[in-house]
User: Fold this.
Amino acid sequence: MSLEVGSAERMVWQVTGEEQVMLIYERPEPVKKRAEQLKQPGEKVYIQPLEFRLYGGSYFWVRFDHGNHDWYLIVDKDGNVPRRDQKVDDLLIAGLSVGSAYNDLNFNEKMSKKKDDLILKKYLPLFRKVKEYISDRNPALQTDYDQFEKLVNTTIELQPKMRKGFKEIERLGKFFHRKRYITDELYEEFREVHYPTAKYGFLQGYEQVKSYPARKKVISYLFRSGKVVWALKLLYLHINFWSDKLESEQQKGFDNMHRIFIEGKRGEVEEYMLRHCRNPE
Assistant:
């Protein structure tokens, strides 16, 4: 039941089923030529195989991989490099965000099928019994129980919305694979579903991490009180949720999403990319 985070840089080389396509795409020669001209020694060039028909033009998103750090570039279809302005910044963000639909097809499909909310609904009668028991026997534990219950209710409320959103993102990603372009209308459609869907997923993980100490207290109290069956059932849920001790990469992803969805700031990856834009000022 743990939160899973997609990477905009993850590559998916094949789509299964009826949507199977060859991910071989010849970028326009002027774009490839200009990217090679601006490549620095030791860098590898990745040109996103999508034409961004946005803001009245036709653009391509380029990443220069230098091992420990990357640089980014926006080039138009004729190989011209526009000067750095708000449009260029918006195109950089578009390339990054749309990559989550284009590159993460398998991840998006997996997330569109998660059904933890259906599992948790079966536990609701037990939670009602535990709530009544704690309210009568140990009111001092009520706040901890409320955190545990909030996690359950948050998952039940948000996961159906998350499933629906990832299904739409998966659909758009398959369209991008087939057509190899994105228009203003498609980008607006993508933006309307992408941010809230990612937020729905994160908020479930956020409640898991935040409620970890409280969950331990509730389960420990039930064991001490002789409510072993109740405690064992809740323990099963507890160990399948995230703890508050995340691995390094998990913590990095969690902190980045917290910055975006809780603090209302740009993500670390976006900030990094904007600092490493190779378009001239």
Summary: Confidence is low (pLDDT under 50) at residues 2-23. The chain has ten helices and five strands. The longest strand covers residues 59-65.
